[in-house]
Design goal:
mainly beta, 10% helix, globular
């Protein structure tokens, strides 16, 4: 007990004396919690974020129970070995009982513009996968498009380069990393959940071919950040393991369990005075979907589309902008539209239930920079429904 108390005291003291070197950076150059830790002075570094949610489905016909959930609590720790070498890890508890390592990487600074990074890394796709702290987005729940198409939180083991080039207002990332598990005796990707169930998350993950991901952000215009991201490669399959390289039939069978992925993302964040405007768009092409569906039919698959598409636009305004306070009150409206069956191969039918339209409107009330209370109403309708399903959401989030 004494050791635990001493450890907690040391962590609190270290948190009090740390100071981030982000004040001099442009306001439209966005830094997530891991990057903030890398820019923070001190050898031992700690941080964290968390959120608690209340979700209440609404119906005029039947009574429905709401849910109360400690959705996630995350502790971040970092260590600076010297001026060039740092380590950062993110340890997450979800729903009280689930534990994940969300990030764990070493970063070595070659020079002021180039850093080498290797380990368990967030895939730099879109906005929310990297900026998923509850103070970073409007609404109680993360945008649904970042669950269905870019499966937040999406991370795999890999290595690459990253850096910020302030003279030309560019931030970049480029990684080679492990891919999705499409087949290990059963299918892990499909039309309803997209690629989400194929994430290996660095947990005894296997690799049959490398994948590549990268992102470039430009922040040269006042208040505006524009991002272009991409992900390319093949899914992974256990069927390649142990195949004789001359066994053409076995290789062809393994090839049928693999999908080629080409994902492109465009995003923009604009903030000036009290106005906050965010937009994001994804297009994902899935090659070999016809053979994959035929091979995995009866094995948990058989309904994967040949492409996915989605976008959202989020508009908010801080009505307390003119007041002399650190508080922010942001009414917002977000419109999302996405389809995991945007195109389908000839051997399956388009399922209109996978095309969804989502309206979310509510309030984000920031008590201070790192603490927010949220409430919203969310309306969701798929292609088979005439009416929107309604859910009231509320909760709070913190980040430090």
């Amino acid at each position: 007990m004494k050791n635990i108390t001493l450890f907690m005291c040391l962590m609190l003291i270290s948190a009090m004396i740390l100071k981030a070197q982000t004040d001099s950076l442009p306001s439209n150059l966005y830094i997530n919690s891991a990057e903030k830790m890398l820019l923070t002075n001190g050898n031992l570094k700690i941080g964290g974020y968390g959120e608690v949610h209340y979700n209440q489905p609404l119906s005029s016909d039947v009574m429905k129970n709401g849910t109360l959930d400690v959705h996630r609590f995350v502790m971040m720790m970092g260590y600076q070995f010297n001026d060039r070498l740092q380590f950062v890890t993110e340890l997450e508890f979800e729903h009280v009982v689930e534990f994940y390592v969300e990030q764990a990487f070493l970063q070595y600074k070659l020079n002021k513009y180039i850093n080498l990074r290797g380990g368990l890394i967030l895939t730099p796709m879109g906005i929310v996968n990297e900026y998923h702290e509850p103070v970073a987005f409007n609404g109680v729940e993360r945008p649904q498009i970042d669950n269905a198409i870019s499966p937040t939180t999406w991370r795999e083991v890999g290595f690459g380069i990253t850096g910020i080039i302030l003279p030309v207002s560019l931030k970049y990332q480029l990684y080679m990393m492990n891919g999705f598990n499409s087949f290990d005796g059963s299918a892990h990707i499909g039309g309803s959940s997209g690629l989400r169930s194929g994430r290996q998350k660095g947990s005894e993950s296997f690799v049959s071919s490398p994948n590549f991901s990268g992102k470039v952000e430009y922040f040269g215009f006042r208040g505006l950040n524009i991002g272009l991201s991409g992900y390319f490669g093949n899914t992974q399959s256990t069927l390649y393991n142990g195949i004789d390289k001359n066994d053409e039939a076995a290789i062809a069978r393994a090839d049928s369990s693999v999908i080629g992925i080409s994902m492109l993302g465009v995003d923009a964040r604009y903030s000036i005075k009290g106005l906050k405007l965010t937009g994001q768009l994804y297009y994902t092409n899935l090659s070999n979907a016809d053979q994959f569906n035929e091979f995995t039919s009866g094995k948990g698959g058989g309904n994967l589309g040949s492409s996915m598409f989605g976008y959202y636009v989020d508009l908010g305004y801080n009505v307390l902008r003119s007041a002399k306070t650190d508080m922010q009150l942001i009414p917002f409206l977000r419109y999302s539209n996405y389809d995991t069956h945007y195109n389908v191969p000839v051997n399956i039918a388009d399922n209109p239930a996978y095309q969804k339209e989502v309206y979310t409107t509510g309030l984000s009330f920031f008590l201070t920079k790192g603490a927010v209370i949220k409430a919203d109403m969310q309306l969701v309708k798929n292609g088979t429904q005439d009416e929107f399903a309604k859910t009231f959401n509320a909760g709070f989030g913190i980040m430090f």
